[in-house]
Protein backbone atom coordinates (compact mmCIF):
# COMPACT_ATOMS: atom_id res chain seq x y z
CA UNK A 1 0.00 0.00 0.00
CA UNK A 2 1.20 3.53 -0.77
CA UNK A 3 2.19 5.56 2.29
CA UNK A 4 -0.25 8.25 1.19
CA UNK A 5 -3.05 5.69 0.92
CA UNK A 6 -2.27 4.57 4.47
CA UNK A 7 -2.44 8.16 5.73
CA UNK A 8 -5.74 8.57 3.89
CA UNK A 9 -7.09 5.45 5.50
CA UNK A 10 -6.06 6.58 8.98
CA UNK A 11 -7.60 10.01 8.46
CA UNK A 12 -10.70 8.28 7.19
CA UNK A 13 -10.94 6.05 10.26
CA UNK A 14 -10.28 8.92 12.67
CA UNK A 15 -12.87 11.21 11.14
CA UNK A 16 -15.64 8.67 10.84
CA UNK A 17 -18.41 8.72 13.37
CA UNK A 18 -19.69 5.38 12.07
CA UNK A 19 -17.18 3.28 10.18
CA UNK A 20 -18.62 1.24 7.32
CA UNK A 21 -18.23 -2.50 7.76
CA UNK A 22 -15.89 -2.77 4.76
CA UNK A 23 -13.69 0.29 4.41
CA UNK A 24 -12.22 -0.86 1.11
CA UNK A 25 -9.77 1.04 -1.00
CA UNK A 26 -10.92 3.30 -3.83
CA UNK A 27 -10.11 2.07 -7.37
CA UNK A 28 -9.54 -1.50 -6.14
CA UNK A 29 -10.84 -4.60 -7.89
CA UNK A 30 -12.78 -5.60 -4.79
CA UNK A 31 -14.49 -2.24 -4.30
CA UNK A 32 -15.46 -2.09 -7.99
CA UNK A 33 -16.79 -5.65 -7.86
CA UNK A 34 -18.79 -4.79 -4.74
CA UNK A 35 -20.28 -1.70 -6.39
CA UNK A 36 -21.33 -3.65 -9.49
CA UNK A 37 -22.94 -6.40 -7.42
CA UNK A 38 -25.00 -4.03 -5.24
CA UNK A 39 -26.02 -1.01 -7.34
CA UNK A 40 -28.22 -1.35 -10.43
CA UNK A 41 -29.83 2.10 -10.51
CA UNK A 42 -28.21 5.47 -10.06
CA UNK A 43 -30.30 8.60 -9.52
CA UNK A 44 -28.58 12.00 -9.72
CA UNK A 45 -30.30 15.17 -8.55
CA UNK A 46 -28.31 18.36 -9.03
CA UNK A 47 -29.76 21.33 -7.13
CA UNK A 48 -28.71 24.97 -7.51
CA UNK A 49 -26.24 27.40 -6.07
CA UNK A 50 -25.54 26.56 -2.42
CA UNK A 51 -22.18 26.20 -0.69
CA UNK A 52 -21.50 23.61 2.01
CA UNK A 53 -20.99 26.26 4.72
CA UNK A 54 -24.28 27.90 3.68
CA UNK A 55 -26.71 24.97 3.48
CA UNK A 56 -24.98 22.52 5.86
CA UNK A 57 -23.25 25.14 8.02
CA UNK A 58 -25.42 24.34 11.05
CA UNK A 59 -25.10 20.54 10.92
CA UNK A 60 -23.52 19.38 14.17
CA UNK A 61 -22.45 15.95 12.92
CA UNK A 62 -18.84 15.10 13.77
CA UNK A 63 -16.31 15.33 10.95
CA UNK A 64 -18.13 17.97 8.91
CA UNK A 65 -15.99 21.13 8.85
CA UNK A 66 -18.43 24.04 8.91
CA UNK A 67 -19.25 27.22 10.84
CA UNK A 68 -21.07 25.55 13.73
CA UNK A 69 -18.33 22.94 14.29
CA UNK A 70 -15.24 25.00 13.42
CA UNK A 71 -16.27 28.63 13.02
CA UNK A 72 -17.01 31.43 13.12
CA UNK A 73 -15.36 32.46 9.87
CA UNK A 74 -15.18 36.15 9.00
CA UNK A 75 -14.93 38.29 5.86
CA UNK A 76 -14.19 42.04 5.68
CA UNK A 77 -16.72 44.35 4.04
CA UNK A 78 -13.88 45.58 1.85
CA UNK A 79 -10.78 43.51 1.10
CA UNK A 80 -8.54 46.57 0.75
CA UNK A 81 -10.03 48.67 3.60
CA UNK A 82 -10.38 46.48 6.72
CA UNK A 83 -11.51 49.57 8.67
CA UNK A 84 -14.91 49.35 6.91
CA UNK A 85 -15.89 46.46 9.20
CA UNK A 86 -16.47 42.74 8.89
CA UNK A 87 -19.11 40.08 9.43
CA UNK A 88 -18.68 36.55 10.74
CA UNK A 89 -20.77 33.46 10.05
CA UNK A 90 -23.92 33.37 12.18
CA UNK A 91 -26.70 30.87 12.65
CA UNK A 92 -30.06 31.38 10.93
CA UNK A 93 -30.46 32.33 7.34
CA UNK A 94 -33.21 33.52 5.02
CA UNK A 95 -35.68 31.16 3.36
CA UNK A 96 -35.02 33.23 0.27
CA UNK A 97 -32.34 35.74 -0.69
CA UNK A 98 -33.24 38.28 -3.37
CA UNK A 99 -29.80 39.80 -4.02
CA UNK A 100 -28.41 36.82 -5.97
CA UNK A 101 -24.68 36.68 -5.11
CA UNK A 102 -22.27 36.67 -8.04
CA UNK A 103 -21.11 33.31 -9.24
CA UNK A 104 -19.53 34.50 -12.47
CA UNK A 105 -15.95 33.34 -13.01
CA UNK A 106 -14.49 36.70 -11.97
CA UNK A 107 -17.01 37.09 -9.13
CA UNK A 108 -15.90 33.70 -7.82
CA UNK A 109 -12.29 34.73 -8.28
CA UNK A 110 -12.81 37.82 -6.09
CA UNK A 111 -14.57 35.65 -3.48
CA UNK A 112 -11.66 33.18 -3.33
CA UNK A 113 -8.61 35.40 -4.03
CA UNK A 114 -9.80 38.90 -2.90
CA UNK A 115 -8.93 39.99 -6.44
CA UNK A 116 -10.87 39.82 -9.72
CA UNK A 117 -7.75 39.29 -11.81
CA UNK A 118 -5.09 37.42 -9.79
CA UNK A 119 -1.81 36.25 -11.36
CA UNK A 120 -2.50 32.87 -12.97
CA UNK A 121 1.18 31.87 -13.03
CA UNK A 122 1.46 32.33 -9.27
CA UNK A 123 -1.77 30.36 -8.82
CA UNK A 124 -0.54 27.47 -10.98
CA UNK A 125 2.80 27.40 -9.12
CA UNK A 126 0.99 27.20 -5.79
CA UNK A 127 2.50 30.56 -4.70
CA UNK A 128 -0.80 32.41 -4.62
CA UNK A 129 -3.38 30.65 -2.46
CA UNK A 130 -7.07 31.48 -2.15
CA UNK A 131 -8.22 32.68 1.29
CA UNK A 132 -12.01 32.87 0.72
CA UNK A 133 -12.21 36.40 2.16
CA UNK A 134 -13.90 38.29 -0.69
CA UNK A 135 -17.53 37.13 -0.46
CA UNK A 136 -18.92 40.24 1.26
CA UNK A 137 -16.78 42.58 -0.85
CA UNK A 138 -18.21 41.08 -4.04
CA UNK A 139 -21.78 41.28 -2.73
CA UNK A 140 -21.36 44.93 -1.67
CA UNK A 141 -19.71 45.74 -4.98
CA UNK A 142 -22.79 44.40 -6.80
CA UNK A 143 -25.62 45.61 -4.55
CA UNK A 144 -24.12 48.07 -2.04
CA UNK A 145 -25.38 51.21 -3.76
CA UNK A 146 -29.02 50.23 -3.22
CA UNK A 147 -29.05 47.81 -0.27
CA UNK A 148 -28.15 47.79 3.42
CA UNK A 149 -24.54 46.52 3.64
CA UNK A 150 -25.16 44.68 6.88
CA UNK A 151 -28.03 42.79 5.28
CA UNK A 152 -25.83 41.96 2.28
CA UNK A 153 -23.12 40.59 4.59
CA UNK A 154 -25.68 38.41 6.38
CA UNK A 155 -26.95 37.10 3.03
CA UNK A 156 -23.63 35.62 1.94
CA UNK A 157 -22.11 34.63 5.32
CA UNK A 158 -24.94 33.22 7.42
CA UNK A 159 -25.91 29.56 7.52
CA UNK A 160 -28.96 27.38 7.94
CA UNK A 161 -29.54 25.75 11.31
CA UNK A 162 -30.52 22.10 11.62
CA UNK A 163 -34.14 23.05 12.31
CA UNK A 164 -34.32 25.40 9.30
CA UNK A 165 -33.46 22.53 6.93
CA UNK A 166 -34.99 19.43 8.59
CA UNK A 167 -34.95 17.39 5.37
CA UNK A 168 -31.21 17.94 4.84
CA UNK A 169 -30.58 17.34 8.55
CA UNK A 170 -32.32 13.98 8.43
CA UNK A 171 -30.41 12.97 5.29
CA UNK A 172 -27.08 13.94 6.88
CA UNK A 173 -27.90 11.92 10.01
CA UNK A 174 -29.08 8.89 8.07
CA UNK A 175 -26.71 8.71 5.11
CA UNK A 176 -23.27 9.76 3.86
CA UNK A 177 -22.08 13.36 3.43
CA UNK A 178 -18.88 14.47 1.69
CA UNK A 179 -16.80 17.00 3.62
CA UNK A 180 -14.58 17.87 0.63
CA UNK A 181 -16.67 17.89 -2.56
CA UNK A 182 -16.07 20.90 -4.84
CA UNK A 183 -17.76 22.11 -7.99
CA UNK A 184 -15.58 21.40 -11.02
CA UNK A 185 -15.69 24.90 -12.46
CA UNK A 186 -15.15 28.09 -10.40
CA UNK A 187 -18.07 29.71 -12.21
CA UNK A 188 -21.83 29.56 -12.77
CA UNK A 189 -24.54 27.00 -13.32
CA UNK A 190 -24.38 25.78 -16.91
CA UNK A 191 -20.60 25.21 -17.16
CA UNK A 192 -20.80 23.19 -13.93
CA UNK A 193 -23.75 21.14 -15.14
CA UNK A 194 -21.87 20.51 -18.40
CA UNK A 195 -18.83 19.27 -16.44
CA UNK A 196 -20.97 17.05 -14.22
CA UNK A 197 -22.15 15.00 -17.23
CA UNK A 198 -19.12 15.38 -19.57
CA UNK A 199 -16.00 15.98 -17.43
CA UNK A 200 -15.35 19.39 -19.04
CA UNK A 201 -17.32 22.55 -19.73
CA UNK A 202 -15.88 22.66 -23.24
CA UNK A 203 -14.26 26.02 -22.47
CA UNK A 204 -17.57 27.60 -21.46
CA UNK A 205 -17.39 29.88 -18.41
CA UNK A 206 -20.84 31.46 -18.41
CA UNK A 207 -24.45 30.58 -19.14
CA UNK A 208 -24.22 31.51 -22.83
CA UNK A 209 -26.78 30.96 -25.58
CA UNK A 210 -25.29 27.69 -26.83
CA UNK A 211 -26.68 25.77 -23.84
CA UNK A 212 -29.92 24.01 -24.65
CA UNK A 213 -29.37 23.82 -28.40
CA UNK A 214 -27.77 20.39 -28.93
CA UNK A 215 -24.59 22.35 -29.74
CA UNK A 216 -21.89 20.36 -27.92
CA UNK A 217 -20.04 17.46 -29.47
CA UNK A 218 -18.30 16.39 -26.25
CA UNK A 219 -19.04 12.85 -25.08
CA UNK A 220 -21.67 12.89 -22.34
CA UNK A 221 -22.78 10.23 -19.88
CA UNK A 222 -25.98 10.00 -21.92
CA UNK A 223 -24.09 9.07 -25.11
CA UNK A 224 -21.81 6.72 -23.21
CA UNK A 225 -24.70 4.78 -21.72
CA UNK A 226 -26.78 4.88 -24.90
CA UNK A 227 -23.98 3.41 -26.98
CA UNK A 228 -23.39 0.58 -24.54
CA UNK A 229 -27.03 -0.39 -24.15
CA UNK A 230 -27.50 0.95 -20.66
CA UNK A 231 -30.82 2.67 -20.06
CA UNK A 232 -31.15 6.33 -19.06
CA UNK A 233 -33.74 9.08 -18.82
CA UNK A 234 -33.34 12.79 -18.15
CA UNK A 235 -36.37 13.72 -16.04
CA UNK A 236 -36.86 17.46 -15.96
CA UNK A 237 -39.29 19.86 -14.38
CA UNK A 238 -41.08 21.36 -17.36
CA UNK A 239 -41.34 24.67 -15.50
CA UNK A 240 -37.74 24.91 -16.70
CA UNK A 241 -34.72 26.77 -15.41
CA UNK A 242 -32.06 24.04 -15.26
CA UNK A 243 -30.95 21.80 -18.09
CA UNK A 244 -32.17 19.43 -19.35
CA UNK A 245 -28.52 18.57 -19.88
CA UNK A 246 -29.23 15.78 -22.38
CA UNK A 247 -30.47 18.48 -24.78
CA UNK A 248 -27.09 20.20 -24.73
CA UNK A 249 -25.29 17.48 -26.69
CA UNK A 250 -25.43 16.93 -30.47
CA UNK A 251 -25.37 13.15 -29.98
CA UNK A 252 -28.74 13.16 -28.26
CA UNK A 253 -30.39 14.60 -31.35
CA UNK A 254 -28.38 12.84 -34.06
CA UNK A 255 -28.99 9.45 -32.42
CA UNK A 256 -32.72 10.15 -32.00
CA UNK A 257 -32.58 10.06 -28.23
CA UNK A 258 -34.39 13.36 -27.59
CA UNK A 259 -37.37 11.32 -26.41
CA UNK A 260 -35.33 10.30 -23.35
CA UNK A 261 -35.89 13.79 -21.95
CA UNK A 262 -39.19 13.36 -20.09
CA UNK A 263 -41.27 15.32 -17.55
CA UNK A 264 -40.38 14.85 -13.89
CA UNK A 265 -43.94 13.69 -13.19
CA UNK A 266 -42.95 10.46 -14.97
CA UNK A 267 -40.15 9.97 -12.44
CA UNK A 268 -42.65 9.47 -9.63
CA UNK A 269 -44.71 6.93 -11.58
CA UNK A 270 -41.60 5.10 -12.84
CA UNK A 271 -40.24 4.91 -9.29
CA UNK A 272 -43.53 3.50 -8.02
CA UNK A 273 -43.69 0.89 -10.81
CA UNK A 274 -40.05 -0.16 -10.55
CA UNK A 275 -39.51 1.15 -14.07
CA UNK A 276 -36.61 3.52 -13.43
CA UNK A 277 -33.77 3.19 -15.96
CA UNK A 278 -30.23 2.36 -14.85
CA UNK A 279 -29.39 6.08 -14.86
CA UNK A 280 -31.94 8.73 -13.88
CA UNK A 281 -30.82 12.35 -14.15
CA UNK A 282 -33.19 14.85 -12.49
CA UNK A 283 -33.53 18.57 -13.17
CA UNK A 284 -35.26 20.80 -10.59
CA UNK A 285 -37.02 23.98 -11.68
CA UNK A 286 -35.35 27.33 -11.26
CA UNK A 287 -35.31 30.31 -10.36
CA UNK A 288 -37.84 32.32 -8.40
CA UNK A 289 -40.75 31.84 -6.04
CA UNK A 290 -42.40 28.44 -6.42
CA UNK A 291 -39.37 26.73 -7.99
CA UNK A 292 -37.62 23.75 -6.45
CA UNK A 293 -33.86 24.11 -6.94
CA UNK A 294 -33.02 26.22 -3.85
CA UNK A 295 -31.58 28.86 -6.16
CA UNK A 296 -32.09 32.14 -4.39
CA UNK A 297 -35.33 34.01 -4.69
CA UNK A 298 -36.76 30.48 -4.73
CA UNK A 299 -37.39 29.17 -1.21
CA UNK A 300 -35.04 26.77 0.55
CA UNK A 301 -38.12 25.11 2.03
CA UNK A 302 -39.58 24.47 -1.46
CA UNK A 303 -36.29 22.79 -2.40
CA UNK A 304 -36.54 20.64 0.72
CA UNK A 305 -40.09 19.61 -0.20
CA UNK A 306 -38.85 18.50 -3.62
CA UNK A 307 -35.93 16.48 -2.19
CA UNK A 308 -38.32 14.82 0.28
CA UNK A 309 -40.66 13.83 -2.54
CA UNK A 310 -37.85 12.35 -4.65
CA UNK A 311 -36.45 10.47 -1.65
CA UNK A 312 -39.78 9.04 -0.53
CA UNK A 313 -40.62 7.94 -4.10
CA UNK A 314 -37.36 6.00 -4.27
CA UNK A 315 -37.60 4.65 -0.71
CA UNK A 316 -41.11 3.25 -1.22
CA UNK A 317 -40.43 1.90 -4.73
CA UNK A 318 -39.44 -1.67 -5.62
CA UNK A 319 -35.96 -0.64 -6.86
CA UNK A 320 -34.80 0.98 -3.60
CA UNK A 321 -32.65 -1.97 -2.53
CA UNK A 322 -30.41 -1.59 -5.61
CA UNK A 323 -30.46 2.20 -5.82
CA UNK A 324 -27.76 4.79 -5.23
CA UNK A 325 -29.23 8.31 -5.00
CA UNK A 326 -26.64 11.08 -5.33
CA UNK A 327 -27.82 14.49 -4.17
CA UNK A 328 -25.49 17.29 -5.21
CA UNK A 329 -25.40 20.95 -6.23
CA UNK A 330 -24.03 22.65 -9.32
CA UNK A 331 -21.95 25.31 -7.58
CA UNK A 332 -21.76 27.53 -4.52
CA UNK A 333 -23.93 30.33 -5.87
CA UNK A 334 -21.62 32.98 -4.42
CA UNK A 335 -22.39 31.92 -0.85
CA UNK A 336 -19.46 31.81 1.54
CA UNK A 337 -17.48 28.66 2.17
CA UNK A 338 -14.28 28.72 4.24
CA UNK A 339 -12.32 25.89 2.56
CA UNK A 340 -10.01 27.19 -0.20
CA UNK A 341 -10.61 25.37 -3.50
CA UNK A 342 -7.63 23.25 -4.61
CA UNK A 343 -5.84 23.16 -7.95
CA UNK A 344 -6.95 20.35 -10.26
CA UNK A 345 -5.91 18.69 -13.52
CA UNK A 346 -7.09 20.60 -16.59
CA UNK A 347 -9.79 18.67 -18.47
CA UNK A 348 -8.50 19.87 -21.87
CA UNK A 349 -6.48 22.79 -23.26
CA UNK A 350 -9.44 25.20 -23.47
CA UNK A 351 -9.59 28.50 -21.57
CA UNK A 352 -12.31 31.09 -20.91
CA UNK A 353 -11.87 34.87 -20.83
CA UNK A 354 -14.24 37.52 -19.50
CA UNK A 355 -14.01 41.17 -18.51
CA UNK A 356 -13.79 41.63 -14.74
CA UNK A 357 -15.39 44.37 -12.63
CA UNK A 358 -12.07 46.27 -12.62
CA UNK A 359 -12.19 46.55 -16.40
CA UNK A 360 -9.41 44.03 -17.00
CA UNK A 361 -9.69 40.77 -18.93
CA UNK A 362 -9.25 37.61 -16.88
CA UNK A 363 -8.57 34.18 -18.33
CA UNK A 364 -9.66 31.14 -16.38
CA UNK A 365 -7.56 28.10 -17.24
CA UNK A 366 -9.81 25.46 -15.67
CA UNK A 367 -6.90 24.40 -13.46
CA UNK A 368 -8.66 24.95 -10.13
CA UNK A 369 -11.96 23.83 -8.65
CA UNK A 370 -14.85 25.96 -7.37
CA UNK A 371 -16.05 26.07 -3.75
CA UNK A 372 -17.34 23.19 -1.63
CA UNK A 373 -20.89 22.09 -2.29
CA UNK A 374 -23.18 19.76 -0.35
CA UNK A 375 -23.10 16.23 -1.80
CA UNK A 376 -24.67 13.15 -0.21
CA UNK A 377 -24.83 9.45 -1.06
CA UNK A 378 -28.25 8.07 -0.17
CA UNK A 379 -28.77 4.30 -0.35
CA UNK A 380 -29.29 1.29 1.90
CA UNK A 381 -25.66 0.47 1.02
CA UNK A 382 -23.95 3.47 2.67
CA UNK A 383 -23.01 4.09 6.30
CA UNK A 384 -25.42 5.85 8.63
CA UNK A 385 -24.40 9.39 9.59
CA UNK A 386 -21.07 8.88 7.86
CA UNK A 387 -18.86 11.84 6.93
CA UNK A 388 -16.35 11.13 4.17
CA UNK A 389 -13.14 13.17 4.18
CA UNK A 390 -10.85 13.52 1.15
CA UNK A 391 -10.59 10.76 -1.44
CA UNK A 392 -7.86 9.03 -3.40
CA UNK A 393 -6.90 9.39 -7.05
CA UNK A 394 -6.07 6.38 -9.19
CA UNK A 395 -2.39 7.14 -8.53
CA UNK A 396 -2.84 7.05 -4.78
CA UNK A 397 -2.80 10.80 -4.17
CA UNK A 398 -5.10 12.24 -1.51
CA UNK A 399 -7.40 14.68 -3.31
CA UNK A 400 -10.67 16.49 -2.75
CA UNK A 401 -13.73 15.05 -4.43
CA UNK A 402 -15.42 17.00 -7.22
CA UNK A 403 -18.19 16.59 -9.75
CA UNK A 404 -15.69 14.55 -11.82
CA UNK A 405 -15.79 11.92 -9.08
CA UNK A 406 -19.27 11.01 -10.30
CA UNK A 407 -18.08 10.11 -13.81
CA UNK A 408 -14.99 8.38 -12.37
CA UNK A 409 -17.23 6.13 -10.28
CA UNK A 410 -19.89 5.53 -12.94
CA UNK A 411 -17.06 4.41 -15.24
CA UNK A 412 -16.38 1.61 -12.78
CA UNK A 413 -20.05 0.72 -12.53
CA UNK A 414 -20.72 0.68 -16.28
CA UNK A 415 -17.27 -0.10 -17.73
CA UNK A 416 -16.12 3.06 -19.42
CA UNK A 417 -12.85 4.99 -19.48
CA UNK A 418 -12.57 8.53 -18.04
CA UNK A 419 -13.76 11.10 -20.61
CA UNK A 420 -11.04 13.65 -19.73
CA UNK A 421 -7.75 13.88 -17.77
CA UNK A 422 -9.68 15.70 -15.02
CA UNK A 423 -11.97 12.69 -14.61
CA UNK A 424 -9.00 10.31 -14.81
CA UNK A 425 -7.36 12.03 -11.84
CA UNK A 426 -10.58 12.35 -9.80
CA UNK A 427 -11.23 10.47 -6.57
CA UNK A 428 -13.80 7.70 -7.03
CA UNK A 429 -16.23 6.70 -4.29
CA UNK A 430 -17.27 3.13 -5.07
CA UNK A 431 -15.43 1.97 -1.94
CA UNK A 432 -18.07 3.74 0.18
CA UNK A 433 -20.63 1.12 -0.83
CA UNK A 434 -20.88 -1.42 1.99
CA UNK A 435 -21.11 -5.19 1.66
CA UNK A 436 -24.43 -5.52 3.45
CA UNK A 437 -27.63 -3.51 3.15
CA UNK A 438 -28.97 -1.48 6.04
CA UNK A 439 -32.48 -2.19 7.28
CA UNK A 440 -32.92 1.05 9.23
CA UNK A 441 -33.32 3.59 6.44
CA UNK A 442 -36.20 6.01 7.19
CA UNK A 443 -39.38 5.52 5.14
CA UNK A 444 -40.17 9.23 5.28
CA UNK A 445 -38.35 12.47 5.96
CA UNK A 446 -39.55 15.34 8.19
CA UNK A 447 -41.71 18.08 6.69
CA UNK A 448 -39.83 21.16 5.51
CA UNK A 449 -40.03 24.28 7.65
CA UNK A 450 -41.07 27.44 5.84
CA UNK A 451 -39.70 30.50 7.62
C1 LIG B 1 -13.26 49.38 -1.04
O1 LIG B 1 -12.57 50.52 -0.64
C2 LIG B 1 -11.95 51.21 -1.71
C3 LIG B 1 -11.07 52.31 -1.11
O2 LIG B 1 -11.82 53.09 -0.22
C4 LIG B 1 -13.02 51.73 -2.63
O3 LIG B 1 -12.43 52.40 -3.74
C5 LIG B 1 -13.87 50.57 -3.15
O4 LIG B 1 -14.96 51.04 -3.91
C6 LIG B 1 -14.40 49.77 -1.99
N1 LIG B 1 -15.07 48.57 -2.51
C7 LIG B 1 -16.25 48.11 -2.05
C8 LIG B 1 -16.76 46.87 -2.69
O5 LIG B 1 -16.85 48.63 -1.15
C1 LIG C 1 -29.19 47.77 8.23
O1 LIG C 1 -29.69 46.55 8.74
C2 LIG C 1 -29.39 46.35 10.12
C3 LIG C 1 -29.87 44.97 10.48
O2 LIG C 1 -29.02 44.01 9.92
C4 LIG C 1 -30.03 47.42 10.97
O3 LIG C 1 -29.69 47.24 12.31
C5 LIG C 1 -29.56 48.78 10.48
O4 LIG C 1 -30.25 49.80 11.17
C6 LIG C 1 -29.77 48.94 8.98
N1 LIG C 1 -29.16 50.18 8.54
C7 LIG C 1 -29.78 51.09 7.80
C8 LIG C 1 -28.99 52.28 7.40
O5 LIG C 1 -30.95 50.94 7.42
C1 LIG D 1 -26.28 -2.98 -28.15
O1 LIG D 1 -27.43 -3.61 -28.65
C2 LIG D 1 -27.43 -3.69 -30.07
C3 LIG D 1 -28.81 -4.19 -30.51
O2 LIG D 1 -29.18 -5.31 -29.75
C4 LIG D 1 -26.28 -4.59 -30.50
O3 LIG D 1 -26.25 -4.67 -31.91
C5 LIG D 1 -24.97 -3.99 -29.98
O4 LIG D 1 -23.89 -4.84 -30.30
C6 LIG D 1 -25.01 -3.75 -28.51
N1 LIG D 1 -23.83 -2.98 -28.10
C7 LIG D 1 -23.12 -3.27 -27.02
C8 LIG D 1 -21.94 -2.37 -26.75
O5 LIG D 1 -23.39 -4.18 -26.26
C1 LIG E 1 -33.21 9.15 -36.70
O1 LIG E 1 -34.52 9.26 -37.18
C2 LIG E 1 -34.55 9.68 -38.53
C3 LIG E 1 -36.01 9.92 -38.89
O2 LIG E 1 -36.81 8.86 -38.50
C4 LIG E 1 -33.89 8.63 -39.41
O3 LIG E 1 -33.88 9.06 -40.76
C5 LIG E 1 -32.44 8.44 -38.93
O4 LIG E 1 -31.83 7.39 -39.64
C6 LIG E 1 -32.40 8.12 -37.45
N1 LIG E 1 -31.02 8.13 -37.00
C7 LIG E 1 -30.51 7.18 -36.24
C8 LIG E 1 -29.06 7.34 -35.83
O5 LIG E 1 -31.17 6.21 -35.85
C1 LIG F 1 -27.20 30.02 -10.13
O1 LIG F 1 -28.10 29.69 -11.09
C2 LIG F 1 -28.52 30.73 -11.92
C3 LIG F 1 -29.58 30.22 -12.81
O2 LIG F 1 -29.19 29.12 -13.51
C4 LIG F 1 -27.37 31.27 -12.68
O3 LIG F 1 -27.77 32.35 -13.50
C5 LIG F 1 -26.34 31.69 -11.72
O4 LIG F 1 -25.19 32.07 -12.41
C6 LIG F 1 -26.00 30.61 -10.72
N1 LIG F 1 -25.17 31.11 -9.68
C7 LIG F 1 -25.62 31.96 -8.72
C8 LIG F 1 -24.60 32.38 -7.73
O5 LIG F 1 -26.77 32.33 -8.66
TrEMBL record:
Q: Name one GO molecular function term.
A: hydrolase activity, acting on ester bonds
| First and last residue of the signal peptide | 1-18
Q: Which BP terms does GO give this entry?
A: phospholipid catabolic process
Transmembrane regions listed in the UniProt entry: none
| Record flagged with keyword Signal | yes
Superkingdom, natural source: Eukaryota
Family annotation (Pfam families): Phosphoesterase
Q: Which UniProt keywords apply?
A: Hydrolase, Signal
Q: Which PANTHER family match?
A: NON-SPECIFIC PHOSPHOLIPASE C4-RELATED, PHOSPHOESTERASE SUPERFAMILY PROTEIN (AFU_ORTHOLOGUE AFUA_1G17590)
State the protein's name.
Phosphoesterase
Organism (species):
Penicillium cosmopolitanum
Amino acid sequence: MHASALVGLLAFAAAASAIPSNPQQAHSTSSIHNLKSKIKNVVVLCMENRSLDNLLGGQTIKGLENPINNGPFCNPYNVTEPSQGHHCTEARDYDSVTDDPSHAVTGNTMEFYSNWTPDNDLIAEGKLLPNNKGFIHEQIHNYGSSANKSVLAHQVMNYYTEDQVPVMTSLVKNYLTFNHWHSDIAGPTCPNRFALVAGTSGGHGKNDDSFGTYAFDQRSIFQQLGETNHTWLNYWDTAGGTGPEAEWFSWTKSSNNSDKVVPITQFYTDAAKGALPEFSYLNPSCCGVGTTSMHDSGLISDGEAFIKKVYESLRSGPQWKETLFILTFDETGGFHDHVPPPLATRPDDLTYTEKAANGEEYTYEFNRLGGRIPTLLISPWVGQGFVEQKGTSNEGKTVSYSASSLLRTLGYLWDFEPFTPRVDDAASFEHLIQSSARKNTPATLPSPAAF
